Amino acid sequence: MMTVYALAGVAVLLALAPIALAFAASARATDAVYGVALVTTSALCVIAMASLFERPAVVSTAVLPIGLPWLGAHFRIDALAAFFLVVVNLGGVAASLFALGYGRHEELPQRVLPFYPAYLAAMNLVVMADDAFSFLVAWEFMSLTSWALVIAHHRDAGNIRAGYIYLLMAGFGTFAMLLAFGLLAGDNGNYAFDTIRAARPAGGLAALVLILTLIGAGSKAGVVPLHAWLPLAHPAAPSHVSALMSGVMTKVAVYGFVRVVFDLLGAPDWWWSMVVLAVGGVTAVMGVLYALMQHDLKRLLAYHTVENIGIIYIGLGLALAFKAHGMAVAAALALSAALFHVFNHSVFKSLLFFGAGAVLNATGERDMEHLGGLIHRMPQTAFVFLVGCAAISALPPLNGFVSEWLTFQAILLSPQLPSWGLKFLVPAVGALLALSAALAAACFVKAFGVSFLGRARTPQAANAQETDSNSLAAMYFLAALCLVAGVLPGIFIDALAPVTHALVGTSMPHQSGLDWLTVVPIAQSRSSYNGLLVFLFVTLSGSIAAFAIHRLASDRLRRGPAWDCGYPDPSPATQYTASSFAQPIRRVYGTTVFRAREIGEMPPPGSTAPARLTVILHDLIWDAGYAPIAAFIGYAADRLNVLQFLTIRRYLTLVFAALVLLLLVLAIWQ
Amino acid sequence: MIRDLALQGAQMLFVLGLAPLLTGFVRKVKARLLRRRGPPLLQPYRDLARLLRKEVVLADGASWLFRVIPYIVFAGTWVAASLVPTFGSGLLFSWSADLIAIIALLGSARFFLALAGLDVGTAFGGIGSSREVMIASLAEPAMLMIVFTLALIAGSTQLSTMAAYMVSAAVGLRVSLGLALLALIMVAIAENARIPVDNPATHLELTMVHEAMVLEYSGRHLALIDLSSELKLLLYVSVIACLFVPWGIVPPGADAQAIAVGLACYLGKLAAGGVLLAVFETSIAKMRVFRVPAFLGAALMLGLLATLLLFVSGSL
Q: Residue A554's pLDDT is what?
């Protein structure tokens, strides 16, 4: 029954798209579309939560007579789908609310409004699909609608290129998924997930499906080295869509991976986890290192999505390793950590993109080097953005810390794994995870410090206005969620119990009944964390200190010019910029990872010309992976161009030769 | 329950009261090693009292965040320090945060302090913040690797359980413990801005990190930040003491006499730690900022090696 209700909600969203197209020119259209989207996604969110929290867990299905004639379109909401539906629609609620304010500033509403509800509907459909055909159609629909939103501002430099690369990579990813489902369906074409589950592939075939899914879903999620499109496409879209793409669509991709690898494929081989872990570790560190080199606020956030996807894949890889070795409790812990991070990242990444959108609206700038001092002009946006920064930097007592803490606890269980490869890989991955967490904190000190603190670097930043109340409401809502999920993680972990139960056979111990709402993954003597108490302690001791000092000591205050060792400079250009802030880190890590070089040009003595410092960075993944392929395709296209100008005789010969060749192949094959 | 609560409260006040004394002690020993008389032991208390009485001179461009951060930094550090076993283990709230969470609390404090360095928009604050996060980006993973090593040996990340395990006969002499101790000392030096990574005594010098970051603070704000640094030093010495010289830590539910012995042991350990730190700082020169990554990279590698050893064999 739940599935039918959810499908009705999706139908409303789908119907909204053509209506929006018809009335996009009208002034009320923006409010109407985002308002309806807000109500519908709220309803979908409630439906999803009702399915997720229902005990005992229920599975509801529905079949619609569309799609392939002999198959129909199957839909199903089980615990896994329900959890991801919550993530998708919570993101949808927040984005629609934000857009009620933010969308009013849109210059080209007719290029955004029709695609926005369709995009939301597509993401819901992917999660609900229960046969390969519907899944792929919804997947591709999701790619296309988001592509349309990426190129909504088609006149801005770089957006068309971003859309082009996105479309190519999305096509490539879907192709890999298509092959994976082709292998899963087998000779008989069993496209329904139920029949796939009944006849699971084994051995080499299953491994091939894993690799194809890792490529297909991974390219959508943004795992390194398939991430190249993500930092181009996500920032190009309007900010509420950026939030959906980064916070939600990457999670739908993770859903695709989990659905295929944990559900459809059955028992994993031990080495699968090594591939996933290695990919996750590299993705996490590379993502954050790329982010540190950015000074475009939205692009920095997009690279952080890459990092967080890496963290999620580390959790999934650990879960696969434990599952392969029959350690169900540990697998449940690792999977819970990964899925909790899915939720957390969707919350704080949406929040951060909304903040970046508010800044973009207020100043017209995405480049941090042109911002500064916004905390004075936009105090509320600054506050919620700071909460998001602290959450993504995994600072207690916020939510990002809890999921990373759980991942660390899962890593600490892994010495019991028998295989030697994992014994060497897991500690290394643990080090990479720790490194990425520390670098993320550095990066968000930079992002917040350079954009919001200090002195305004441009008149636009100096004259920025606080954003509207709808946008603020959306951001406060997500900031509150960051705190709630960090302080009361037990509720969220318990909600994940049916999901892990379905995928790895057991779930983490029940958390809600414990004293003081503590989180205890395995046993109290082993490890425990209580976000609530930590939050209370920190608040209490801070308040006591403030009270005591203001009461017993001095509370006098005088404003004066900055000290700066006696030589304060009035020009805001003397502040640290995003590039100069990252310089020590660039020097430590960038010289190898990006082959970074700094060229300083000093004018000769007596000259009044300014000194110049040029930084050269190489994106080695692009240079070594994408550029040669692009060059080869260009070369091949040039060579094959002659085929376009042949006579009809030659074309017929070619067709005949191709036919003979294919028949020959068929004959030899038989 | 009331007794446990009182013990926990006593521990919080105890670390708070003791922290400036440790700093004063280290300064005194360093001065004696240089054949100076040095400031009196209680000088840090006097400095704090003087700063607390003075008015705050706030830079014109400072935001509300700049005024809140000293309290956040102090609260985070104080909570972290009071969760570490000092004279007794198994205190009432010790299970609310394990060693990873304590490290993360210190990380929060540093995150906000680095933001404070950027708030006024001066070059000195920026240089301090930017170098601080660079150092942290290596020190934190190194610290986590050390935590991994110790947690794998003790089978827990709870400091009280770890301390109890370390004092038991089961632990023995291990290569990984030696590596972890070395790495932990290196990380502790870097985290507390001590020589050779940073110099707590300098001002107006381009190589300074921590002091540059807090340059714009004055009055009660500066007092809180100084007190936080002193608490952090105490915390790291306590962590090293409770993990590597765990003898004399009082288990939960001990009587008053045992607690007195535990206190005496703890003070002895602190004094020994202070003397060792002073001797080390006096005998070595400060290194250039860009030598620090190599120093901390070595700590990270030591920690990783220790963890790897434990993954290969539980007895190494």
A: 86
- The Cα diameter of chain A in Å comes to 100
Shortest distance, CA A414 to any CA of chain B (angstroms): 8
Q: Render pLDDT for B166-213 as a digit per residue (tens, 0 to 9).
A: 888 778 788 999 999 999 999 999 999 898 888 877 765 666 788 889
What residue of B is the nearest CA neighbor of A288? B137
Q: Are A468 and A101 in contact (CB under 8 A)?
A: yes
pLDDT higher than 90, residue A566:
no
The sign of the CA dihedral B127, B129, B132, B136 is negative
Q: How far is B186 from chain A (nearest CA, A)?
A: 17
C-alpha span between B195 and B191 (Å, rounded): 11
pLDDT at position A384, please? 97
- Enclosing domain of residue B67: 2-312
Q: What is the distance between the alpha carbons of residues B266 and A460, in angstroms, rounded to a whole number?
A: 57
Phi, psi of A458 (to 5 degrees): -135, 160
Residues 250-289 of B with CB under 8 A from A: 289
Residue where a domain terminates, one of A514, A546, A578: A546
- Is the residue at A361 inside a domain? yes
Domain count of the fold of chain B:
1
Domain that holds residue A638: 620-669
**A528-564, pLDDT tens digit by residue?**
899 999 999 999 999 999 999 999 888 899 999 998 8
**Taking a C-beta distance cutoff of 8 angstroms, is the pair A242, A99 a contact?**
no
Distance (Å, whole) CA A249 – CA A594: 28
Binary contact (A401, B104; C-beta < 8 A): yes
Instruction: Work out how many domains chain A is built from and give that number.
Output: 2
C-alpha–C-alpha distance, residues A211 and A272, integer Å:
9
ipTM of the complex: 0.95
Residue A566: left if φ>0, alpha if ψ -120 to 50, beta else—which one? left
Q: What is the pLDDT of residue A567?
A: 82
Q: What is the mean pLDDT of residues A108-121?
A: 93
Domain for residue A211, yes or no?
A: no
Give the separation between CA B225 and CA B213, rounded to whole angstroms. 11
Q: Which of A305-314, A368-377, A639-648 has the lowest mean pLDDT?
A: A639-648
The vertex-A589 CA angle with A584 and A594, nearest 5°, equals 110
